[in-house]
Design brief:
InterPro entries: PurM-like_C_dom (IPR010918), PurM-like_C_sf (IPR036676), PurM-like_N (IPR016188), PurM-like_N_sf (IPR036921), PurM_cligase (IPR004733). It is found in: Cytoplasm. It catalyses: 2-formamido-N(1)-(5-O-phospho-beta-D-ribosyl)acetamidine + ATP = 5-amino-1-(5-phospho-beta-D-ribosyl)imidazole + ADP + phosphate + H(+). It is a single chain. The protein is α+β, with helices and mostly antiparallel strands and about 375 residues long. About 30% of the residues lie in helices and about 25% in strands. Helix 1 packs parallel to helix 4.
Length: about 375
């Protein structure tokens, strides 16, 4: 027979504080409202967010693009440093910048936060960061959910995820079908590690015994500050390129998990190879720090981290100069990364070839030259 508890068990006693959740919503409302455009219908707090898509009537054949992602174990750095207002930029970057790869203009974003204990101020900081990034990329933060999971997550633990939807005219979809031999690759600089490979980075620091508050002269700041550098947002620059009359864009590649070569190969057609010149840029100090500290092989490093390239545009050769200028006008460094050619099946002089990545039976990427670290 089940023993009767001495005191009634409430939801709060079980670890869920609905009042804290309500307070978190109040603290984040203004930040969320700040992302809303004239297309948003209704306010914050509804069961579902509404957005007016009447403009889609002007499309001949509108296609909806969707993406969902999280920020991986970078949240562990945010939690360890008790800094939570930057991780939202990483989330938006991981999600919305995948949407723009196909040429789509983002319409809306939603978020999900799971935590062991709702601390209103912490949740509000996370959402404020998401809202700030949504405002930068012109995407309404249309809805979200904060879930309290006591017993599953520790009181100071949380994870974040998000999803976005965009639209593109069917005739304007970017991708491998447009890429041709003779096209060139335009690199857009990363702001740092972005939000991939943190399991490797954290392991390297742990084995080396480095704390997050350790100041590194080469970085000009502490390890923790460097690791929390927000992911650069490329959507505005990419949409500028798509809309520029002097630039013809064939494809974009968002350099996330798997590194530059694996992600670039996804947007190349079978039969073509992209020659990437490793010497065309200087690898930022944080990547060299990870490599040297953990004696990580370059082959593993380049297959895990972005090494300083966060987005790549594939354009015709006669669009190269205009593309570089347009990206730089957005405050992002850009340069000629390489060229696309017919795939002869050969690795080339000291070249390393990557193909068949991410389940895509597409083109190949040939990495040539040597990385520069200074």
């Amino acid at each position: 027979m089940t023993e009767t508890p001495r005191q009634p068990i409430t939801y709060a006693a079980a670890g869920v504080d609905t009042e804290a959740g309500d307070k978190a919503v109040e603290l984040m409302k203004e930040a969320v409202r700040g992302t809303h455009t004239s297309a948003v219908v209704g306010g914050v707090g509804g069961f579902a967010g509404l957005v007016d898509v009447s403009a889609l009537k002007d499309y001949r054949r509108p296609l909806l693009a969707t993406s969902t992602d999280g920020v991986g174990t970078k949240v562990a750095i945010a939690q360890a440093m008790d800094v939570h207002d930057t991780i939202g930029h990483d989330l938006v970057g991981m999600v919305v910048d995948d949407i723009v790869v196909v040429g789509a203009r983002p319409l809306l974003m939603t978020d999900y936060i799971a935590t062991g204990k709702v601390v209103p101020e912490r949740v509000a900081d996370i959402v404020r960061g998401i809202a700030e990034a949504c405002a930068i990329v012109g995407t309404p933060l249309l809805g979200g959910e904060t879930a309290e999971h006591p017993g599953l997550l520790g009181e100071n633990e949380y994870d974040v995820a998000g999803a976005a939807t965009g639209v593109v005219e069917a005739d304007d979809v970017l991708g491998a079908e447009r890429v041709r031999a003779g096209d060139v690759l335009i690199a857009m600089a990363a702001s740092g590690l972005h939000s991939n490979g943190y399991s490797l980075v954290r392991r390297v620091l742990d084995v080396a015994g480095w704390s997050l508050d350790r100041h590194v002269p080469e970085l000009g700041r502490t390890v923790g500050e460097e690791l929390l550098e927000p992911t650069r947002l490329y959507t505005p620059a990419c949409l500028d390129l798509v809309g520029a009359p002097s630039v013809e864009v064939h494809a974009f590649s968002h350099v996330t998990g798997g590194g530059l070569a694996a992600n670039l190969a996804r947007v190349l057609p079978k039969g073509l190879v992209a020659d990437v010149d490793r010497a065309s840029w200087v690898v930022p100090p944080v990547f060299e720090m990870v490599r040297a500290l953990g004696q990580v092989p370059w082959s593993d490093l380049q297959a895990t981290l972005n090494l300083g390239v966060g987005m790549v545009a594939v354009v015709p050769a006669d669009s190269a100069d205009a593309a570089v200028a347009a990206v730089r006008a957005r405050g992002i460094d850009a340069w000629l990364l390489g060229r696309v050619a017919e795939d002869d099946g050969e690795p080339g002089a000291d070249g390393e070839v990557v193909r068949g990545t991410k389940g895509v039976d597409g083109g190949a990427v040939r990495l040539v030259g040597t990385y520069r670290t200074s």
